[in-house]
Give the backbone structure.
Amino acid sequence: MDFTDLATSRRGFLALGAAGAALASVGLPAVAARVATRAKIVIVGAGAAGTAMANRLVERLDGAQITVIDARAEHLYQPGLTLVAAGLKPASYTRSRTTDWLPQGVTLITQSATAIDPVAKTVDTSGGQTIAYDFLIVAPGLVLDHDAIEGFSLDMVGTNGIGALYAGPEYAARTWAAAQAFTENGGVGVFTRPATEMKCAGAPLKHAFLIDDIASRTVGAGKYKIEYAANNASLFGVPIVSEKVRMLFDERNIHANYSHVLKAVDAGRKVATFATPDGDTEMGYDYLHVIPPQRAPDVIRQSGLSWADRWTDQGWVEVDMKTLRHLRYPEVFALGDVAGVPKGKTAASVKWMVPVVEDHLVAALSDSEGTAEYDGYTSCPLITRVGRAMLIEFDYNNNLVPSFPGLIAPLEELWISWLMKEVALKATYNAMLRGKA
Ligand SMILES: Cc1cc2nc3c(=O)[nH]c(=O)nc-3n(C[C@H](O)[C@H](O)[C@H](O)COP(=O)(O)OP(=O)(O)OC[C@H]3O[C@@H](n4cnc5c(N)ncnc54)[C@H](O)[C@@H]3O)c2cc1C
């Protein structure tokens, strides 16, 4: 295999990771010319997107004042949460320090952005500062609206047969405690997903598949039942993938409940209530996996940056889907989960979004026009068993866009695809954070 081609391939995010971080610096494009500027650039959020962006801008700009705002001292490798919640990795696998990833030459303000005024071009912080910007990159991710599920609270996770792996490393570990009890004792496992847009839409399926796989080898067939509650009439947003998942569910006796959206939990009775087109319905459970609705953080929704006529309950930022530039405030870009584009709430998307924003921002600082476009690329190593995954990659048009056509079939459960998720994805993610992939 030619690793240089691999590293420079359009879809190299996961593929490149196959050989780990060592490859991440191989075959990168020639270093672009640095641009001299005194511009004030503010990045809200130092997660996957904000950190990758800060590293790339430091490489491209001379003299810019780059300020990163984020109160969280920990950086979370969120793709690892699925592995923690299946007992395959410790919670520590997902944790590092925010400052480990930020480059020299940026100013980190360890506070939250509390208000953005896109007319005055300022950001207020929780510490009472007001920071002026020439360009703003909003990358605060999204918030998990656990309160939207009646009767549910995060302190239930890990006991009462309740899991919630999205909530962070500790909750993912507690999710495994509850799920493990189910795999040992059997009963009914109920797996849910929200009706809003969500990050890594494959994760609810991964959890169901993994717990089914483990239960089949511990408590054994006939002693447990898996109920999967899909929010609409399909199991995945891409029709051909949805059909493949339906076939796998059939093979494995996983029962799909379509158009079932979790609305309430009665932990005392171990009963979950779902909204359906025919009214509310109840399901008893021994293990319940909760993934709550997901929305843009309040600071975004209150700033006037959200779409006014799309996703009105969710508040994603109103950007051009190809350039990620705000449609009303051209000096504002949105990156990562908060961006109001039809696809792309994954780290793999962040990898392809960041160079696009870099191109348009650096062009604007040079009084020219950027040309890069984001095509909606997103990917999901959809784990189906311990040791098997399907490497699903697709774009805005739901086209499957495999990194290695002919080498890794997207709809086959392969060990190599598992390896990419289990081993290589983190190395590639880390390279992306450093602006090197
Ligand atoms: C369970 C799970 C599994 C996943 N699996 C995969 C996978 O297999 N492959 C994949 O590619 N992706 C996966 N993802 C998705 C991926 O982790 C996210 O899409 C990615 O982290 C998004 O990056 P982001 O920078 O937009 O948000 P984040 O990485 O969440 O970072 C947002 C940052 O903004 C900060 N912030 C929030 N509010 C404010 C504020 N008001 N002011 C300042 N800072 C703020 C936060 O503290 C945080 O540091 C998964 C996610 C989850 C939860």
